[in-house]
Write a structure and sequence with these properties.
The protein is an alpha/beta fold and 412 residues long. It folds into 2 domains: 247 residues, Acetylglutamate kinase-like (Carbamate kinase); 145 residues, VC0802-like, CATH 3.30.2130.10. Helix content is 33%, strand content 27%. Strands 3-6-2-1-9-11-12-10 form an 8-stranded mixed beta sheet, with helices on both faces. A 6-stranded antiparallel beta sheet has the order 14-15-13-16-18-17. The protein has a two-stranded antiparallel ribbon with strand order 4-5. It binds adenosine-5'-diphosphate, aspartic acid and magnesium ion. Adenosine-5'-diphosphate (ADP) binds next to loops. The site of magnesium ion (MG) has 3 residues, from loops.
Length: 412
């Protein structure tokens, strides 16, 4: 008997009919002799609706209360799915994050899972029940409701699979796997049957939202394979992507995929005295405010002055700009500017390690369609560039073609 954790995203549970279809699928897995734990998201659009309500009262309001509101979406879905299962004769039991003892830190709206108590769930499974757990939510040690950041139900799914020592973690969504890039932006995107967790980690961290980055981090740390598949396919495993640590069976391609992120903003402080400690003075207050900085570029100084540019999440832009202006005033910088009309495009692939000239090929492809690059950052298995947001889709398609990702037979 295998223990399977299945996670269903918002569109997969978007209507009562879709919830019924999920119940039917879960029952098929049980009838094949498996124990099944199901993690569900809120019905599609619901979390956005809740965010809208929060913003209508106070966008800068208490993060604790935001989580109280945000966590309600998933509570509706667990109840509905448990009812649909029972109506079809399958014993089931719903669990909120608190009831599942998903203990997190206290970082409201972006909490990290610290521990899960698997005993109650195992006891229910032993009684022949399907256990339905609310994704995206947990509880801190003080009993406060927390949420795990947008897309966080993926992380609940993987973390539960690890805690329960499941045989497989299946992430059901509205696409039948991971593609070479978002198929909504490039219809020629190609399905990837197998991918390493390392590559998926890089794709997710560069903006591919098919899996939340933290879910991939969990899977990597605990060596839990993830299978991404569609809840809209009639037959299971018709087509899917298996994301694992093992590399040997994978064809060695230079570029595995193109990731992008619109959620970025750029800040520049110019005419800064070029002295030891200047980076710390500029970025220290930003870090203290818990704002994550992504790319950083410091220009070569001239006449004792230098410029400093960095990117942050667009949601943190206003706060970061205020802090930077205060630093600029304090150190007598010449100017402080920002730009929210930018986006980041990245090429990702473990094969880059052994190939030279990948970056220059990327730059020449972008130049061929007249796209200007504002910033560049590289790691062993990725190259990222910041471009004007209005050119993002063009950049994705151009790079997809330049690295041969749409062709039969794989990347260049
Ligand atoms: P869910 O609600 O099931 O969690 P998401 O919307 O979070 O679904 O994630 C699935 C979406 O991720 C797809 O519809 C697709 O538009 C997007 N996506 C982005 N990058 C990729 C990629 N490389 N491969 C597949 N889907 C991708
Ligand atoms: N409902 C949450 C969101 O929309 C979590 C998730 O779907 O994974 O972000
Ligand atoms: Mg998602």
């Amino acid at each position: 008997m295998a223990l399977i954790v299945q996670k269903y995203g918002g569109t997969s549970v978007g209507t009562p009919e879709r919830i019924q279809a999920v119940a039917d699928r879960v029952i098929r897995w049980v009838q094949q002799g498996n124990q099944v734990v199901v993690v569900v998201s809120a019905m599609s659009g619901e979390t956005n609706r809740l965010v809208g309500l929060i913003n209508a009262i106070d966008p800068d309001g208490s993060a604790r209360e935001k989580d109280v509101i945000l966590a309600t979406g998933e509570q509706v879905t667990i109840g509905l799915l448990a009812m649909a299962l029972e109506k079809n004769g399958q014993p089931a039991r719903s669990y909120t994050g608190n009831q599942a003892r998903i203990i997190t830190d206290a970082a409201h709206t972006k909490a990290r899972i610290r521990n899960i108590d698997d005993q109650a769930i195992h006891a229910d499974l032993a009684l022949g029940r399907v256990v339905v757990v609310a994704g995206f939510q947990g509880v801190d040690s003080g009993g406060n409701i927390t949420t795990l950041g947008r897309g966080g139900s993926d992380t609940t799914g993987v973390a539960l699979a690890v805690a329960l020592r499941a045989d497989e973690c299946q992430i059901y969504t509205d696409v039948d796997g991971v593609y070479t890039t978002d198929p909504r932006v490039e219809p020629k995107a190609r399905h990837i049957p197998r991918l390493t967790l390392e590559e998926m980690l890089e794709m997710a961290s560069q903006g591919s939202k098919v899996l939340q980055i933290r879910s991939v981090e969990f899977a990597y740390k605990y060596d839990m394979p993830i299978r991404v598949l569609s809840s809209f396919d009639e037959v299971d495993n018709a087509k899917s992507t298996l994301v694992t640590r093992e590399e040997e069976v994978m064809e060695e391609v230079m570029v595995r995929g193109i990731a992008f992120n619109r959620d970025e903003a750029q800040l520049t402080i110019a005419g800064v005295p070029d002295q030891p400690g200047v980076a710390f003075r500029i970025l220290g207050p930003i870090a203290e405010a818990n704002i994550e900085v992504d790319m950083i570029v410091q220009n070569i100084g001239s006449d004792g002055l230098t410029d400093f540019t960095f990117t942050v999440n667009r949601g943190d832009y206003r706060r970061a700009q205020k802090l930077l202006q205060a630093t600029a005033d304090a150190i007598g910088a010449e100017s402080c500017e920002g730009n929210t009309g930018i986006a980041k495009v990245s090429i990702v692939g473990a094969g880059m390690r052994s190939h030279a000239g990948v970056a220059s090929r990327m730059f020449s492809a972008l130049a061929s369609v007249g796209i200007n690059i504002h910033m560049i950052s590289t790691s062993e298995i990725k190259v990222s560039v910041v471009v004007d947001e209005k050119y993002l889709e063009l950049a994705v398609r151009e790079l997809h073609a330049a690295f041969g990702l749409g062709d039969e037979g794989g990347g260049a």
